[in-house]
Hints:
- The complex is a heterodimer of chains A (155) and B (305).
- In chain A, 11% of the residues lie in helices and 39% in strands.
- With 155 residues, chain A is mainly β.
- Chain A has two domains: 16-97, Aspartate carbamoyltransferase regulatory subunit, N-terminal domain (Alpha-Beta Plaits); 103-154, Aspartate carbamoyltransferase regulatory subunit, C-terminal domain (SH3 type barrels), CATH 2.30.30.
- In chain A, the strands form three sheets. A five-stranded antiparallel sheet of chain A has the order 2-3-1-4-5, with helices on one face.
- In chain A, strand 9 (136-140) and strand 10 form a beta hairpin.
- The radius of gyration of chain A is 18 Å and the shape is globular.
- Chain A starts with 15 loop residues before the first strand and ends with a strand.
- Chain B is an alpha/beta fold and 305 residues long.
- Chain B has helices spanning 17-32, 54-65, 87-95, 110-117, 133-147, 165-174, 193-201, 235-241, 283-301, and strands at residues 43-48, 69-73, 100-105, 122-127, 153-158, 179-184, 205-209, 221-224, 260-262.
- In chain B, the strands form two sheets. Chain B has a five-stranded parallel sheet, with helices on one face. Chain B has a four-stranded parallel sheet with strand order 2-1-3-4, sandwiched between helices.
- Classes of the chains: A mainly beta (155), B alpha/beta (305).
Amino acid sequence: MKDKRTELKVSAIRSGTVIDHIPANTVFQVFKILGLNDTSRQVYFGTNLDSKKYGKKGIIKISNKFFEEKEISKIAIVAPTATIIVIEDYVVTKKEKVNLPENIHKIAKCINPKCVTNHQDVPTSFKIIEDHKGTMKLLCKYCEKTMSQENIEFL
Amino acid sequence: MINIKNRSLVSITDYNKDEILRILDIAEGFEKDQRQKILSDYVIATLFFEPSTRTRLSFESAVQYLGGSIVGFASPDVTSVTKGESLKDTILTVSNYSDLIVMRNPMDGSARYASEVSPVPILNAGDGANQHPTQCLLDLYSIRKTQGSLDNIDIALVGDLKYGRTVHSLVQALSLFNTTFHFVSPESLKMPSSVKTGVKKAGLEYHQYTDFMEVIPKADILYMTRIQGERFPDPLEYEKVKNAYILDNSMLETSKDNLKVLHPLPRVNELNEDVDDNPKAYYFQQAKNGVYVRQALIAAILGLK
């Protein structure tokens, strides 16, 4: 059985973006924040794939889509290990790990119902911090409450 | 580096140690000579979007002792806020009529937002459950005045340490000094880890207790707070602890001579009235110190001190 496949084959895309090394448990969250459940573009995705580095990983390939910084910031928050690979005419033109920004503006909603940003026309702004256990948290610039990754609602 | 002039004060962490001490020094000057008419050409706005007794009256009294004029409201019911006017528009309008705006507002973060849109400085008199920096400064003033210094103090904070914003800010501010903290609370209302981590990072010690009596002989300052029944998910649990953190006069027998009892007020039942006549009771004087501290803040922010 020489030709037994050990890897899942997913079609290469001609032009577009591949998001690789997504933590397996956040693939659907990435899908959602990028609005991919409501797109007319070709999208391939896989989850629980074997990864030498992370054990299990997810991957998403989107044809003819190139992400802006704001969308990459969103990916970084949900999937901090992700790599963004840009493909043009079957050639990789850019490959880089997402970077967690220091601050994010107008991307997420504050979880605190009493926060001024939920009552007045105030653009939200958060500082990305680590709590005492080293877990990533978002600190609201206004109400000074922190929220954890699983509670983030993107705008 | 001291930079107070023309700057808003939203959160106690906006000030460094030198700035805090500067305000306390100026306040001391006002305690010695309160009626300095340095504000006679100034108008201060006090915008109270929710009720307050001590904070509003002490701010207004501070302005009047300094000879300044006040515009403002004690309730938004008589203003265009009832017509749906935004906070930004209210602030921009009032900034045309005043040199400094003192604001209390029920929305968390409203003071930071107001400070961003306002051309005049904002003094936060409480933004919802978030910050109340003038309370923190008057607490520091009261501690320094009664103990002679902010260093080498053993402070016991008693009651609801989980949700009380006053105690969180006070611990943050006292972490700039050499303080030993004693946290006394029911298991379910313990000091949050984030606050305790701050204490550790400052290289200071804290101890946690559920037994109130154990801590009384150790304390220089006993800072009492109210335990609110609505904080407990289980009413039975509240019933169990509600009387465990009530201070009465006989409990102070084992306390140090220099001990002072502080409370941000209003109290409900956590401070028995028989404590009031004990010379160690300091909470009404503490509320009085609020006037000196607020005079100091207004004068320093306007560049008059």
